[in-house]
Amino acid sequence: MPRQTPQIPVTPIVVVKIGSAVLAPEGALDPASIDRLAADIARAARSHRLVIVSSGAVASGFGAMGLPKPPKEIMLKQAAAAVGQSRLMRAWSDAFARHGITVAQVLLTADDLDHRARHLNARNTLLALLERAIIPIINENDSVAFDEIKLGDNDRLSSLVAGLVGARQLLILSTAHGLYEHGNSKKIVPIVTDLAAARAHVSGTTSSVGTGGMHTKLEAVATAAAAGVATVIAGGIVPDVVSRVLDGERVGTSFPIATKRVGARKRWIGYASKVKGAIVVDEGARVALTQRGASLLPSGVTGVEGEFDAGAVVELLSTAADAKAGAKPRAFARGRVSYAAGEVRTIAGKPAKQIAALLGYVYRDEVVHRDDLVLLDASDGKGSPGGSS
């Protein structure tokens, strides 16, 4: 019997990301914060399906290890996460049980989302839980994650999860009560429709127990927007913050959907997959890719960086726009390559009709087909796909 894929519930899905500093101020898990948020989310669960992306494992574990502050060393962070994760989940489970709600722990790494089959399996698991009114509580698997597979912060993880489950909204709760106007905590920007302009307000600071700052939150907003998900950034200590936001009250900073929705497969290429290398293209190819929706042909390739296999996701770079300033080339797109790095080097700069003569075979004429290509946000070049090209 073929396996059935769970359907996205008709009831709207909301992903709520809760930062470490909200749940574990000073490094100690705060039961009152857990109880308050669980009661709020339980009320919201009457009309929405909720997914929680919960920080706090490392922050609630390092104190129990006798450490005076969150560790920087990866092995100690993993150990603290192993100690803290069970404490964190027990607190969530007990808090929600008082409201008759069952929760499920889901641990993810970047490798889970990079691998297409595991990416889809994670989606199916989450949707199966939501179909049964079970609240998934997700965290990065810090006890086994390391630099090569680490997602980096739960802001990004929450935005990827929002796209994964087809959420209507992403709510990011932290010690910041929203986007502060030029860093002034007394002035919250109520609504943002231009992410490039929003970045001018950001200083880049983080809390003592958290890993993400407002920069990572804005990147999460861009990722969510590409999936058609609106985002709100609000204070985690605001009373009834989840219910109030979902009731339409203006709390924190709202980021309406401002970009064209990118399909699920392209979101995986642009956001969830791990970049394995880079291909440098000439200016003509860059213009064709960004303005005419073309595919990348070998004639437009001028260089290859790194080693990768066919089917890998790579960044596309153009030196022309930055050469005069002497700046490092920025990535303007990501895509899945039809050929391995060595093959691309062999056919670089040549017409597609010569591929067979040069390699002895032809997979396809395109090095990166337009259906496997995602344009990036030109304002930062950090992987914020902004088109469906």
Give a verbal description of the structure:
The structure is a single chain. The protein has 389 residues and is α/β, with parallel strands linked by helices. 35% of the residues lie in helices and 19% in strands. It folds into two domains: 13-259, Acetylglutamate kinase-like (Carbamate kinase); 266-375, Archaeosine Trna-guanine Transglycosylase, Chain: A, domain 4 (Roll), CATH 2.30.130.10. Helix 2 crosses helix 4 and helix 7 (154-165) packs parallel to helix 9. It starts with 12 loop residues before the first strand and ends in a 14-residue tail after the last strand.
Largest sheet: spatial strand order: 3-4-2-1-5-8-9
Helix/strand class: alpha/beta
Describe the sheet with the most strands.
Answer: 7 strands, mixed
Radius of gyration: 22 Å
For the record, what CATH class of the largest domain applies?
Alpha Beta
Question: Helix fraction?
Answer: 25-40%
**Number of helical runs?**
15
Mean pLDDT: 83
Architecture blueprint of SSEs:
Layout: E1 13-18, H1 20-23, H2 31-44, E2 49-54, H3 57-61, H4 74-97, E3 103-108, H5 110-114, H6 116-131, E4 135-140, H7 154-165, E5 169-174, E6 180-181, E7 184-188, H8 195-198, H9 214-226, E8 230-235, H10 241-246, E9 253-255, H11 264-272, E10 275-281, H12 283-291, E11 301-305, E12 313-318, H13 320-323, E13 331-336, H14 341-347, H15 355-359, E14 373-375
Parallel strand pairs: 1-2, 1-5, 2-4, 3-4, 5-8, 10-12
Antiparallel strand pairs: 6-7, 8-9, 10-11, 12-13, 13-14
Helix pairs in contact: 2-4, 7-9
